[in-house]
Amino acid sequence: MAFASFLALLFFAPLAFGTTETWSRITAELLAALTALLYFAPRPAASKKPFYQVPGLLPLLLFVAWIFFQCVPLPPQTVRWLSPQAAAAYQPAFDLRQAEFWLPLTVNPQATLLEGLRFAAYALFYILTVQLLASSARLSAALTSIVWLTLFIAFTAMLQRALSPDTLFWFKKLRAGLTTFGPWVYKNQYAGFMVMTCPLVLALFLFHRPVADENASFRERLLHLFSGSGANLHLGFGFGVIVVLASVLLAQSRGGILSLLFALSLFFLLLARSQKKIQTLTLLCLVGGLLLAGGWFSWDAVLAKFDRAFDLAEGQLKDGRLPIWQDTVRIIPEFLFTGSGFGTFIEVFPGWKSFADSLIYDHAHNDYLELLTDGGLIGFLLAAWFVLAVLRSGWKQIFRRHERLAVLAAIGAFSGLAGLLFFSITDFNLHNWANGLYFFFLCGLLVSAGHTRQRYRKHPTLLAPAAAPRRAGLAAFFGAAVVLIALLRIQGGNVLAERHYLRAQTVADSETIEPERKLERMAELLEQAVKNAPFHAGYRYALGNLRQYQQRNASAMVLHSEALLRQPLQGVYLQAAGLVLAETGSDPQLARALMERGYAWAKLKEGPLRVWVEFELTAGRRDNAARILTQELARDPRLLKSVHPLLLEQNFTRQEMAAALPKLTSAWLTCANLTRAAGNEDDAGYFTERALDFLDQEAKPQPHWFMQVYQHHRKQKQDEEALAVLREGIKRLPDYAPFHIYLGDYYSSKKIDYRAIEEYEQALLIQPNNAVVQKKLKQLKDKQP
Asked: How many CA atoms lie within 13 A of 139 on its CB side?
């Protein structure tokens, strides 16, 4: 029963869309805990099961304990000593409540608790894997099942991409722009799964290879390859390896392709060392299959993907991950020893983010850097200790064992682990629930395959039994029970709280409930949500907003401060508390500090900037609002879209608007477009005509800037100014053909044919195949005497 549940979880995790949604994560965690309870349940002494020693168990348990310890409240002075930045994060909550409370090391206890439950489930599953696969029959069954699952996913993923590319494994319609593949929302996580499991497919391919007589001729060996015992499975798994490789190429995951090649290369190196010979024919077949698969799907697309990551002109990488890594490296010293709390990268990154965009970064795209930011040196060293202990245990057995399945399975597991660890340099596969589970499964498989015996008299495995097997089994049983109870309380409470919150939203949208009763009912539901999810800050924030709407500011302030005690770096919560303070007038200085701090830590800046500026304007500090606008728009001119309606509401004059704008062409043209959309053509013209004065402040001029100003001047019948813009555009962007075409069109309309011909010829030097320009040029030349 336990083994069936074990296999069910291995199948469920990847097929449930990579276990990325709340329902699937809760199901998987409950299944892991229940499977452990089934296996370790106390039995009569006559039927007791042995408990084998588990390599790396001590660092793994310490690692899980460290995650939960980050959630334990400690005296404030202790937190200031261990993690000054964590203590500083909670300071606004202290200021609001005018008192100090015991603090956790994490800056988001809810997120860290959920990560602790995830890794507790992984730890149980790793222990289960070592115990269950001590049987050679179970080892073979598990290995074969996972290989067939891998081939099913790879084949159907390619089929789905060809037939229904805009769905997730045919079942879910997704929005455009997502890089999905197979059952995974994120194609790199699909590739990560294949990096781990493809070496296992290769292991079974080699295991089922028919063994021919060494003295047989080449013809006899070739016939034996197709007709010998196990030939059908050998050829089937060989084709399966090619299918997996082809699917990763089709997914176009650069990190996945490199990591899979690394894993397979390591597989053959370990195989050659363990067998004292190189599998030349197998390696050539694999390379040939890879070339065939790449040719089938076109190598051009794959190579183009790699080309985009390297700037040949400047000889440097231009991957979008580099700025993220650079900022992440700056976070590490701030939380050096204890980390900011597992699962909190999304909280702390905005405070160190140095580049402007409209994206939320929940991961660092580098599992090692994120482990250092979230877990500190303590978490990093414990994780490294566990992984090295497992790899060391498997490495030793690879070169000691002689049983074919044990050696091949161990090499496959070792290569898959190494491949994912290599992939973790450029991505966050270990933060995907399914891939994390398979990482720990491979750890257990490596240990089991290296020690499990196919032929034995007394002991099915070379692993030593625990010193006190019964006590060890009971400890595992009670550990699984604790995890199950914690899951039911925390995850179950979160589910109930979410239901109450959604019901409160339904009440808010209702048109049949009286206003007073509506507010009362919403408050009741939100209070239930707070009760069911005590670590969740969002429900307190929502209830606090409701109390503020009811003019119950004292209650609102308490709720907002409690929200900040649970999520102190959430910019929206900080600004909400500042607004309540401003309304009561109790501490204007703290209110201003909260507004500024809330903006600094906001994940997305558009809304918080508007709130901050409106806060200053409402208080009559118009100069401060203008200063804030100038400062923040200089960092990201796109923020103007969110605050421009506010500036119009506040009757900002043309001069005030111009003073607030950064000296950037992009900002002035954006302001011109927004002003024109608001119906003020005069001011729009003013901003448009002066926009190009700031070209030297821009890193790289954009063609559409010149075209926008050109079209404005043409509309105003200002031909000389329009021509000057085109000439400036040609000077700044000499390889942009449309400037020459527009200039040629102007000269042609004025019957200055020789100048029009010059411009059209210049355009054709840049775009030789432009049929429209060719036709215009021919017509002009035909008119020439």
From this structure: 28
Three-state SS for 74? strand
The closest alpha carbon to 352, from 89, 629, 640, 664, belongs to 89
Region label for 183, one of left (φ > 0), alpha (ψ between -120 and 50) or beta (otherwise):
alpha
Can you spell out the DSSP letters for 670-707?
HHHHHHHHTT-HHHHHHHHHHHGGGGGGSSS--HHHHH
> Do 382 and 628 form a contact (C-beta atoms < 8 A)?
no
Distance CA 564, CA 597 (A): 12
Give the pair of three-digit tokens for residue 368: 């090692």
Residue pair 724/693 in contact (Cβ under 8 Å)? The answer is no
Please state whether the predicted TM-score (pTM) of the whole model is above 0.85.
Answer: yes
What are 638-693's pLDDT values in tens digits? Answer: 899 999 999 999 999 899 899 889 899 999 999 999 999 999 999 999 999 999 99
Residue 390's pLDDT is: 96
> Hey, what amino acid is at 724?
A
Amino acid at 34: L
d(CA 99, CA 568): 15
Residue type, 92: P
Q: Could you tell me the residue ranges of all domains in the chain? A: 2-71+106-466
Report which residue type is found at 304. Answer: A
Q: What is the pLDDT of residues 300-351, one digit of tens each?
A: 555 555 556 555 445 455 667 899 999 999 999 999 999 999 999 999 999 9
Taking the C-alpha atoms of residue 256 and residue 240, their distance in angstroms, rounded to an integer, is: 17
Q: Collapsing DSSP states into helix, strand and coil, what is residue 356?
A: coil
283 or 676, higher pLDDT: 676
| Residues 575 and 545: beta-carbon distance below 8 Å | no
Cα of 590 vs its chain's centroid, Å: 35
Containing 229, the helix (H) or strand (E) segment is none
Distance between CA atoms of 492 and 485, rounded to whole angstroms? 10
Q: How far apart are CA 216 and CA 220, in angstroms?
A: 6
pLDDT of residue 46: 47
Share of residues in the chain with pLDDT > 90 (%): 60
Whole-number pLDDT of residue 213: 52
